Amino acid sequence: MSLLGVIGYGATAVGWFILFLLLLTSWRGRLQGGLLVTAVLITLLWALRAAMYAGAEVEGPDWLYQLLEIIRNVAWLAFLGTLLEPLVREVWANRWIQWFRVLLAGYATVLFAIDLQFLWGSSQFELPVDASILGHIGLALFGLMLIEQLFRNTRPQRRWATKFLYLGLGLLFAYDFFLYADALLFKRLDSVIWEARGLVGAFAAPMIAVAAARNLEWSMEVFISRRVVLHSATIFGAGIYLLTMAGAGYYVRTYGGAWGAALQLAFLTGAGVLLATLLFSGQVRARALVLMNKHFFNHKYDYREEWLKFINTLSAGDLSEPPRERVIRAVAEIVHSTGGMLWVRRESVGFVLMARHNMHDRNEPVISVEPVDSSLTFFLEKRQWVIELDEYWRDPELYEDLVLPDWLRETRRIWLIVPLLLSDHLQGFLVLAEARAPQQINWEDRDLLKTAGRQAASYVALLETSEALSEARQFEAFHRLSAYVVHDLKNIAAQLALVVANAVRHGKNPAFIEDAFQTVANATERMNRLLAQLRKEPPASVVRSMALKAAVKRAVEARTAQRPVPIARLATDDEPWVQVDPERLV
User: Disulfide-capable partner of 176 in 111, 140, 150, 208 (CB 3.0 to 4.6 Å)?
Assistant: First the structure.
């Protein structure tokens, strides 16, 4: 049993199984895509059988493994031939490709027959017949030859889309050639080379996945999540790092003398701390994303993921973060910016600095208002362009007659200026700080930032409208409260004025004095109630039945001291009743 072989070929099987699921679910029925899916499936079966063969406790050949290896190579050769056919214009070359398919099928049949005839009875890693080894070398050479022809006949501007296919399959065929060339030289398969072949096969699967995602004409609409690739690359890199550090730690322990064990422990602890620091570093993650997007994907962004993240940031219910700061953070995270400032239009003032995120005092502008008619705001509204300051300093002619304000020239760490447009109207603009990792801004970044800026402008406009409406509601509530207060004050003043007016004539009348004290007590009660209501929201009206004649008489009596003196004329002897709040009626 070979543990390395089981692990290596098992890892290969897992990688090719994931690739098979991706391709199978995205296949659209075209021939090239079908051949690719078939070749991947056979490679998966071959890796599974190799893992079982490596873990078996039996000796001797395995005819199923040999058959799957031959069919695997034939499937990949057929796929490469299908890709090569439309690239070759010469008639004789197309005829050669057609004959190649027939010869390939015959060659594979003869090779398998040779393997069956001579492999029975041999040991696990011995091939006593040179013909079989030469046959496998021939398949590897055919594969390398087809890859070379494909590369030579592919236009240079299209090689970025297929280079990972050439690298992945070239790795498989080149290693096969090395394996069987060594076997031909020493008359036996080297067990170490054969076991390492499993690990090598695992490297080819992600390369072919990237190639399939870049070549939509294969009718393979493969979606590979950047997050999955980043996490997988992180795990893979961490594994390689840990293996390397373990080897170095073993070296330190072996040659460290009496302090070897202690030095190994200290070394591994430091290596672990360094790894954890790198894994949690935002700058390292940003650099990895830039590298990955640049070399492995058609587009720089996964637009679905970026848009969902942008909307989730804007709509987050975190009350500890002001909404305008969320706008800055949502746009800044798209390009991994470390912070920024938000300027919003105020019609009577200009563009006002309303919020800042992760910008220290030394990085803030010395002014907080940018005029509406300045060169900067005019350029942003007219051109609707994202301004990159580094590009502006390098080639100012690209920005026509743009003149940056002094505060922008003096502010440090500024990288981008993003317009916030609402129906071609400049609602505001964002000033973003430099990114965590250096990166070049291209058309993709600009388009995404402008689109996000329009959404952010809608959010800011809605926020401004909501705040204005809230302020208007507060004024309305204050107006209602003021009317209520004035009404009560007028009633109290009328009652007290009546007491003062009657004091001259009835001042010595005990009944008047008693009534005056009752009136003052009533006024005091109403004043206290009014003060209590001023400290809180006005209470809801208490509606109850009330005699209308009695209310009118009381109101007239309360105002007899005023000029002209009101007179109540009641046209009926009936007592009408109404449902009303007595405090508001009288």
Answer: 140
CATH number of 303-469: 3.30.450.40
- Residue 104 CA to residue 290 CA, distance in Å, equals 43
Query: Looking at the DSSP assignment, which residues form a beta bridge with residue 387?
Result: 417
Other Cβ atoms within 10 Å of 359 Cβ, number? 21
Given a cut of 70, whether residue 205 has pLDDT beyond it is yes
Look-up of token digits 């064990």:
261
- Model pLDDT, residue 91: 42
Strands 544-547 and 425-433: unpaired
- At 492, list the tokens: 């109290």
Amino acid in position 490 = K
SS (H, E, C) 82-100: HHHHHHCCCHHHHHHHHHH
At a CB cut-off of 8 Å and minimum separation 6, what does 577 contact?
A: 545, 546, 547, 548
- Measured N-to-C along each axis, helices 91-119 and 130-153 cross at an angle, to the nearest 10 degrees, of 150
Summarize pLDDT for 157-187 with one digit per residue, the tens.
677 778 888 889 998 999 998 888 888 877 7
Mean pLDDT of 471-500: 75
Phi, psi of 580 (to 5 degrees): -155, 160
Measured between alpha carbons, how far is 459 from 342 in angstroms, rounded to an integer? 13
**What are the residue ranges spanned by the domains of the chain?**
3-222, 225-280, 303-469, 541-586
| Exposed/middle/buried for residue 249 (C-beta within 10 Å: 0-12, 13-18, 19+) | buried
Query: In this structure, are residues 364 and 341 in contact, taking their beta carbons and an 8 Å threshold?
Result: yes
Architecture of domain 3-222: Up-down Bundle (1.20)
**Beta carbons within 8 Å of 335's beta carbon, 6+ residues apart:** 416, 432, 435, 439, 441, 445, 449
Q: What is the dihedral of CA 290, 292, 295, 297, to 10 degrees?
A: -110
Instruction: Give residue for tokens 């190649």.
Output: 100
Instruction: Give tens-digit pLDDT for 113-123.
Output: 666 655 554 44
CB 8 within 8 A of CB 202: yes
The identity of residue 101, as a single letter, is R
What digits encode the pLDDT tens for the residues 33-83?
788 889 999 999 999 999 888 887 656 557 788 888 888 988 888 888 888
Q: How far apart are CA 157 and CA 32, in angstroms?
A: 21
Say if CB 387 and CB 417 are below 8 A apart. yes
Provide the edge-to-edge strand list for the sheet that holds 350-357.
369-370, 350-357, 340-346, 425-433, 414-422, 387-388
Residues 6+ apart with CB under 8 A from 354: 324, 342, 343, 344, 428
How far is 413 from 391, CA to CA, in rounded Å?
A: 14
Question: Rounded to the nearest 5°, which phi and psi values hold at 225?
Answer: -65, 130
Tell me 218's DSSP state: G
Q: What is the pLDDT of residue 123?
A: 41
Rg of the chain over CA atoms, in angstroms?
42
